[in-house]
């Protein structure tokens, strides 16, 4: 990113729910740790170049110890002879308030980052801020926005959400990947305008693609309802408008913002217990009978284990021409508060069946010791009770007040949801922005205030038309999907490219059909939200991931492929909506 083209601010998102657990275990071993040490190794190579080009660096790699990482950055700068000023943001660590927690961190907004940049910091290190705050904080500094600039902040939050997972916005993890060369996708960047609108693009000559489809996919990633709640602003995803702005350029405009909720989310991790697993290989005939024999033979050994889950994956093929494709996998995952009950004694009992169980017995790995696993939970805390603090380059701590939240701004109220999006407003640049100028950003003549754009295509109406011809086909012939995790919940976003396809998707893919296509969601709470501006549906499945990724009881513990499973399911699709068999793009 530093060598590819113009850039004003370089951001780095290092924190996921699983990362917080890993950093928490690091901190147990050494209280001076708790930050992402990989950031320092990367910074050593690029700090001088960033300083030379006037690029500010903003990262949440501080994790559980932002002050420690800030000190390490200063030491690194002295070592490589680069005169940079460093500030950090703290106050998110609430572990002391949560008894028995390994980590407990409030998700802060971007205002602390803004304050550090206003004080002249070249590098800003944070703890647990929202992923989007790494973009909205610098944008508020650059354009001198206030906490009441809800629409502008919401636009920057949406841009930040698109950027947060790097190349997922430029063709990585993209349903229609075969339509583009995505072997080495370039990283995305956002050209943000004074009104909060943005163009998502990438540096010239980099791989991958930026399209309405890739941006839509990322907008649906790990989101829930039409309101995207954040500590600085509530962004209305149902007001987002995407328009083409040239090759590898997609403009995001029309985003409306509302006051943030009065509370902050707190991510809490705990050591949940101990886990182990054994994977048995079942080859050839009688796979079900072989699996039943193993279960019966290990029943005594599993007596008293808190949680034992068997999964049989029928990866075998009849009359296969390789041994691997003739084999199925039987997976046993065990969890217990005691390491003794799921340790080597248990896995050894499994391996000792080798000479007295099913024909062809073998396992994928030798028995191992039990491993600790973590669980993730979330809580909330009044924003006024979190000591959001910007520690400026000179060491001065600056308390960041919670943004004002009018009593009427409850995130549960439907208010304008049924009224439809308003036209985007036009905002002049602030005096601070006019005075600052830019050392990079958009090419000449690009990145101004977005023009008003029309809404989604109207529903297709055909007077007197009867039922259309349908064909049995995978949903993925027509629709893209992106899925992910939020603690123990998963979301699946599904989108299509045209108005007629959206009409069909909205009317067809109900919660009932969703459960029928994904039987593992039956019995769980499934919420469905419509996002007409993106021609998308977003489903939230509560509890499908149990205690979260670190507990690891599912084959796909972060639900990354849940959307692709949905796309592979067959249903009746109108023939006129489908692209030709060779067409896979949007």
Explained architecture:
The strands form six sheets. The chain has a six-stranded mixed sheet, sandwiched between helices. Strands 4, 13, 14, 15, 16 and 17 form a six-stranded antiparallel sheet that branches. The chain has 13 helices and 25 strands. It has helices at residues 17-29, 37-53, 66-80, 111-118, 133-143, 150-163, 212-219, 287-297, 344-351, 431-436, 499-508, 511-517, 562-568, and strands spanning 9-12, 56-59, 86-90, 103-106, 123-126, 188-192, 198-202, 227-228, 234-236, 241-244, 250-253, 256-258, 263-283, 307-313, 327-336, 362-363, 371-382, 389-391, 397-399, 470-474, 480-486, 489-495, 526-531, 536-541, 570-574. The protein is α+β, with helices and mostly antiparallel strands and 586 residues long. The protein is globular and about 70 Å long. The model is unreliable at 409-466 (pLDDT under 50).
Strand order of the largest sheet: 1-2-5-3-18-19
Strand content: 15-25%
The computed structural class is alpha+beta
Average pLDDT, all residues: 88
Number of helices: 13
Distance between the termini: 27 Å
How many strands, what sense, and barrel or not for the largest sheet? 6 strands, mixed
């Amino acid at each position: 990113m530093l060598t590819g083209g113009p850039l004003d601010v370089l951001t780095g998102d290092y924190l996921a729910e699983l990362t917080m657990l890993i950093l928490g275990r690091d901190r147990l071993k050494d209280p001076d740790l708790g930050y992402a040490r990989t950031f320092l190794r990367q910074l050593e190579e690029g700090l001088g170049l960033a300083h030379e080009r006037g690029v500010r660096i903003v990262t949440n790699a501080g994790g559980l110890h932002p002050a420690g990482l800030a000190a390490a950055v200063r030491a690194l700068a002295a070592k490589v002879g680069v005169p940079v000023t460093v500030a950090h943001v703290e106050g998110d660590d609430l572990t002391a308030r949560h008894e028995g927690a390994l980590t407990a961190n409030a998700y802060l907004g971007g205002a602390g980052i803004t304050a550090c940049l206003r004080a002249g910091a070249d590098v800003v290190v944070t703890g647990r801020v929202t992923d989007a705050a790494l973009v909205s904080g610098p944008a508020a500094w650059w354009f001198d926005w206030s906490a009441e600039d809800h629409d502008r902040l919401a636009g920057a939050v949406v841009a930040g959400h698109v950027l947060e997972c790097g190349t997922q916005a430029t063709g990585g993890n993209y349903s229609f990947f075969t339509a583009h060369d995505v072997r080495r996708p370039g990283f995305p960047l956002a050209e943000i305008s004074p009104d909060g609108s943005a163009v998502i693009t990438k540096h010239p000559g980099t791989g991958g693609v930026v399209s309405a489809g890739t941006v839509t996919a990322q907008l649906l990633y790990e989101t829930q309802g039409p309101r995207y709640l954040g500590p600085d602003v509530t962004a209305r995803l149902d007001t987002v408008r995407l328009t083409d702005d040239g090759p590898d350029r997609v403009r995001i405009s029309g985003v409306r913002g509302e006051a943030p909720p009065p509370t902050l989310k707190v991510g809490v991790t705990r050591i949940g217990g101990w886990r182990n697993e054994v994977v048995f290989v079942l080859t050839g005939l009688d796979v079900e009978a072989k699996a039943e024999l193993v279960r019966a033979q290990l029943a005594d050994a599993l007596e008293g284990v808190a949680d034992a889950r068997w999964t049989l994956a029928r990866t075998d093929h009849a009359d296969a021409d390789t041994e691997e494709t003739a084999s199925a996998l039987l997976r046993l995952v065990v969890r217990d508060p005691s390491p003794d009950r799921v340790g080597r004694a248990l896995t050894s009992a499994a391996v000792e069946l080798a000479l007295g169980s099913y024909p062809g017995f073998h396992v994928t790995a030798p028995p191992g010791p039990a491993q600790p696993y973590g669980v993730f939970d979330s809580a909330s805390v009044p924003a006024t009770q979190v000591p959001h603090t910007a520690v400026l380059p000179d060491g001065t701590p600056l308390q960041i007040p919670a943004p004002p939240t009018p009593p009427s701004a409850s995130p549960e109220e439907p208010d304008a949801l049924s009224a439809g999006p308003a036209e985007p407003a036009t905002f002049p640049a602030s005096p601070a922005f006019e005075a600052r100028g830019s050392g990079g950003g958009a090419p000449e003549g690009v990145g101004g205030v977005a023009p008003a754009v029309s809404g989604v295509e109207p529903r297709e109406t055909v007077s007197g038309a009867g039922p259309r011809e349908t064909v049995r086909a995978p949903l993925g012939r027509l629709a893209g999907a992106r899925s992910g995790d939020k603690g123990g919940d998963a979301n699946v976003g599904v989108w299509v490219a045209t108005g007629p396809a959206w009409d069909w998707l909205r009317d067809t893919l109900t919660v009932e059909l969703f459960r029928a296509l994904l039987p593992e969601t039956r019995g769980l709470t499934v919420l469905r939200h419509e996002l007409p501006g993106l021609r998308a549906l977003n489903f939230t499945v509560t509890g499908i991931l149990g205690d979260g990724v670190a507990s690891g009881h599912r084959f796909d513990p972060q639900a990354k492929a849940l959307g692709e499973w949905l796309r592979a399911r067959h249903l009746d699709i109108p023939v006129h909506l489908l692209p030709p068999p060779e067409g896979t793009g949007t």
